[in-house]
Design goal:
Helix content of chain B: 25-40%
Low-confidence stretches of chain B: none
Oligomer: heterodimer
Structural class of chain A: alpha/beta
Largest sheet of chain A: 5 strands, parallel
Number of helices of chain A: 16
Shape of chain A: globular
Distance between the termini of chain B: 34 Å
Distance between the termini of chain A: 53 Å
Radius of gyration of chain A: 21 Å
Largest interface: A-B, 77 and 59 residues
Strand order of the largest sheet of chain B: 4-3-2-1-5-6-7
Number of strands of chain B: 7
Number of strands of chain A: 19
Mean pLDDT of chain A: 96
Strand order of the largest sheet of chain A: 5-4-3-6-7
Low-confidence stretches of chain A: none
Strand content of chain B: 15-25%
Strand content of chain A: 15-25%
Largest sheet of chain B: 7 strands, mixed
Shape of chain B: globular
Number of helices of chain B: 8
């Protein structure tokens, strides 16, 4: 009998019951809740007069809608009345149903996918869900983590389970070594460029290979975060010594003897040598250059040394149409060099790239420099209050503000522009976020997905540049 | 809960691949704490010439005449015909809520994003997968025939075209059962509450670190 993949093992450990047609009821260890996709779920519980199955399995934090500017007035001072009601509704629901919440004034508040691992709420071997597609982030510690819709949020609240069919197994190996200046973000953009935004549909992806092993846990989070941009609901990395060191000592992590037991169990969470994958993709680390997305889908990505594609060269009519529409929306010409794309707005933040290492990378490029005159707006939005505090202790905030960046309060911010932070129509934004869809960062805004280091370099130059050429 | 058995309705074409959930329902509308009322804002950025805001009265907004769903011949459509990877992007269930509220009960496409596909069933929308060739054929027929209607029969898993062609489609048996009977997932799962409890109790002993209560 063939061995098991990491996903097979995680799946098997969570099956409560299985029907003949393969529909399984799987147990959920942790649900993270935010203000946008939860109000209708709590309302559903109330209407059916149901209680949470296990309130302590849930944790809540407002992130999508919170202002990133001055918060002295608290929730009641949120200017947008509809956003305010949503944040107030989360506060009310968390307190009514007995769910731990990191409220807006709490230093632990931040983006749900930054806060979960930071607090030790996400552990290796867990099933982790959240009403947000970037829940795949938590797979970086060796959890089975995936995004769900609001009906499923309600289902987990009420039953601590989900009805699921098992996904297929895909392994993406990134072998070799990365060049200096090339980061986890470039790796995942290169993967999406290679397999496409539907390449991982129906699969759980395990990221493996020397490059992945060499990455920090935060780097692995960046990779797993964007699994969904490759179509896969779940991405994961087998836990190792780095994972254990990362988890140890976090507020909600196990302690003492229980932690020792946990570590023993986590050592078995890896794909067996003879495990069979339904699909396998291999990339070579040395071949990956810093990436820039040019279009309106994350697969529309090129190396910074490359050029924008020409629809005339595309033989598939549907694809050629997509390229034409994207070029038109982005205001770019076929064949234009990536380094000739101007940058008017810079956003460093989001659940993809707002952790301390991301801020350090960007700051190392910015140190002693100023943003270009053509850059009208440059924001740094730390992923959590604790990340912000750490950055300030290291003096990173000073490097950013000296360069001309605004130093903001934690939240999702301009990644999806639900709060007041938006890219104006027609402007090009170098963004460390995860989606470049039409209107994502503001109606008419033009998003280019890049790493924090590339965003910082673009801020200084006023256009994209190969960060490798400006590094000391 | 929603029920779906058979449907005969006008088909509206949306000839784009990778239609994402931000396009189906832009983020400014996600601030609502309700499940209803998203229909007038479905495809807001493509559908209207101005920028939509929550609670806006859409009856007098300038519409984009080039957007297919705005054409008079597709008014009242309940079946959406589109291209691959429909519903990619975020997990927002507001996307199927908006499509359902707009009037769509079924979608036909070569492929869907996983989370959207799942969310659709839970809101009484039947997402049907057909081959690229069949989807292309239907696009051509819709374009050529004003008032083009299809009949979707879920019990027999067939689509009938006006010319009498019968197209078979597959659907997961469990999801079919739930749609045909309008079953509530939570109610179904709670029938197994004892099994869940037994699993949980055993897990508390074998993996105590998973529990912080």
């Amino acid at each position: 009998m063939a061995g098991k993949t990491l996903y097979d093992k995680l799946w098997d450990q969570h099956v409560v019951r299985m029907d003949a047609d393969g529909t399984a009821l799987i147990y959920i260890d942790r649900q993270l809740v935010h203000e946008v996709t939860s109000p209708q779920a709590f309302e559903g519980l109330r209407i059916a007069n149901r209680k949470p199955w296990r309130a302590s399995a849930n944790a809540a934090v407002p992130d999508h809608n919170v202002p990133t500017t001055d918060r002295a007035g608290g929730v009641d001072a949120i200017v947008d009345p509809i956003s305010r009601v949503q944040v107030q509704t989360l506060d009310k629901n968390a307190s009514e149903f007995g769910i731990t919440e990191f409220k807006m004034g709490d230093i632990r508040q931040g983006i749900v996918h930054v806060v979960g691992p930071e607090q030790g709420l996400t552990l290796p071997g867990m099933t982790v869900v959240c009403g947000d597609s970037h829940t795949s982030t938590h797979g970086a510690v060796g959890a089975l983590a995936f995004g769900i819709g609001t009906s499923e949020v309600e289902h987990v609240l009420a039953t601590q389970c989900l009805l699921q069919k098992k996904m297929k197994n895909m392994r993406i190996r990134v072998e070799g070594k990365l060049q200096p200046g090339v980061t986890a973000k470039d790796v995942v953009l290169a993967i999406i460029g290679k397999i496409g935004t539907a390449g991982g549909t129906g699969y759980a992806i395990e990221f493996a290979g020397q490059v992945i092993r060499d990455l920090s846990i935060e780097g692995r989070m960046t990779i797993c975060n964007m699994s969904i941009e490759a179509g896969a609901r779940a991405g994961m990395v087998a836990p190792d010594e780095k994972t254990i060191a990362y988890v140890q000592g976090r507020p909600f992590a196990p302690k003492g003897e229980v932690m020792a037991q946990a570590i023993e169990a986590w050592k078995h969470l890896y794909s067996d040598d003879d495990a069979v994958f339904d699909a396998e993709v291999v990339l070579q680390g040395e071949d990956i250059a810093p990436q820039v997305s040019w279009g309106t889908s994350p697969e529309m990505v090129i190396p910074v040394t490359g050029a924008v594609p020409d629809p005339e060269a595309e033989t598939d009519a549907v694809k050629a149409g997509s390229i034409r529409r994207a070029l038109d929306y982005m205001g770019l010409k076929p064949g234009m060099k990536a380094t000739d794309i101007p940058v008017n707005v810079v956003f460093i933040g989001s659940c993809t790239n707002s952790r301390i290492e991301d801020l350090r990378q960007a700051a190392s490029v910015l140190k002693g420099k100023k943003i270009a005159e053509s850059v009208e707006m440059a924001l740094v939005v730390p992923g959590s209050g604790l990340v912000k505090q750490q950055a300030e202790q290291e003096g990173l905030d000073k490097i950013f503000t000296d360069a001309g960046f605004e130093w903001r309060e934690p939240g999702c911010s301009m990644c999806l522009a639900m709060n007041a932070d938006r890219v104006p129509a027609g402007k090009h934004c170098a963004s460390t976020s995860n989606r470049n869809f039409e209107g994502r960062q503001g109606a008419g805004g033009r998003t280019h997905l890049v790493s924090p280091a590339m965003a910082a370099a673009a801020a200084v130059a006023g256009h994209f540049v190969d960060v490798r050429s400006v590094m000391a | 809960m929603y029920q779906f058995t058979t449907l005969t309705a006008v088909v509206a074409p949306l000839d784009r691949a990778n239609v994402d959930t931000d396009a189906i329902i832009p983020k400014q509308f996600l601030k609502s704490i309700k499940r209803s009322g998203f229909g007038p804002y479905a495809f807001d950025e493509w559908r209207y010439m101005d920028i939509g805001e929550p609670d806006m009265d859409c009856t007098h907004r300038p519409i984009n005449p080039d957007f297919s769903l705005n054409q008079p011949r597709y008014q009242g459509a309940k079946i959406l015909l589109t291209r691959q990877n429909f519903g990619c992007g975020s997990s927002r269930e507001h996307a199927p809520w908006a499509l359902k509220d707009y009037g769509f009960d079924a979608i036909i496409a070569p492929s869907y994003a996983d989370i959207f596909f799942n969310n659709s069933f839970k809101n009484g929308i039947l997402p049907i997968v057909l081959s690229d060739e069949l989807v292309q054929q239907l696009f051509e027929e819709v374009e050529a025939n004003e008032g083009y209607k299809l009949t979707i029969d879920l019990p027999s898993q067939t689509i009938s075209t006006p010319s009498g062609q019968q197209i078979r489609f597959s659907v997961d048996p469990f999801r079919k059962h739930c749609l045909l009977n309008g079953l509530d997932d939570i109610g179904l799962t709670l029938q197994h509450a004892d099994e869940i409890k037994r699993y949980e109790d055993a897990r508390r002993i074998s993996m105590p670190w998973m529990f912080n209560d």
